[in-house]
Design brief:
Organism: Acorus calamus
Keywords: Signal
Protein name: 11-beta-hydroxysteroid dehydrogenase-like 2
Largest sheet: 7 strands, parallel
Pfam families: adh_short
Strand content: 5-15%
Radius of gyration: 21 Å
Amino acid sequence: MLGLFLIGVSVSAAVVLLAKFATADGDFTLLSKGPPKREEVEDKVVWITGASRGIGEILAKQFAELGAKLILSARNVAELERVKSELVGKHVPHGVEILPLDLASGEEKLKEAVEKAESFFSAAGVDYMVHNAAYERPKTTVLDVSEEGLRATFNINVLGTITLTQLLAPYMLKRGKGHFVVMSSAAGKTPAPGQAVYSASKYALNGFFHTFRSELCQKGIKVTVVCPGPIETSKVSQPQSSGQSVTSEKRVSSERCAELTIVAATHGLKEVWISNQPVLFVMYLVQYMPTIGYWFMDKIGGNRVEAAARKGNTYGWSLFFNQKKKTT
């Protein structure tokens, strides 16, 4: 009887776990941590790149509400001013600085930006560096990637981000503390058919920052790598042109992505995944059963590129089952 009881308990626990996983929008460690820790960011200086729209804009608003001082960077100054005007928080507006920045502008310009950032707020220095800016082109096949697109993606996503980190890190080391929050991607953990170059740039970021943390963590430097899957970055639905199908992609909202990112940072997590299913399932599969995970991705690769071309759903389960019959 005891054996049957234990089996029943185990089965019930497994069912509950599977139900939670099916409805999860992040990895289990992340979702177990509760709300952001306000005390970790209140009165701290947070520098956000790509802060003029999307996740960067929402991160700025949520950090401001938690009492942080902010440095907002992007190329579009007018949009940065708009974001600043919409912030609400303990240090708004006097604790918010706008610092125009182009990650592809070269080392000298980035050095000037770092020096300005460090001089703000009575030279308090940067506590959190949120690497959010990124460059992504529309999905295309590997063979259609241009050299211009390759260089543009790596100049911003990899070279500019790494250079900015190398320039800022010495200031943090001198203070004995600093935290880099890196907005990577699920495409940096799994194959991403139709996004080969973007995926490669995110794999590069993951490799650099995990190594960077391993080298400097004993000197007070923290790194949190965030890997979101599909995120809804606009509240406005884009009209579908003639011949295009309406997508049914279920995406995590920008607000939820930003919230979970701050949870991860304030709880000191090293890497987190943010996504609905099936992307979250694929990330676990590739991480823990890579042979099966890559087989799964090989099955959907061609279908995903075709779905992107017709503006269809590029993240649904249907990609796996929609296999075309071979013609003889």
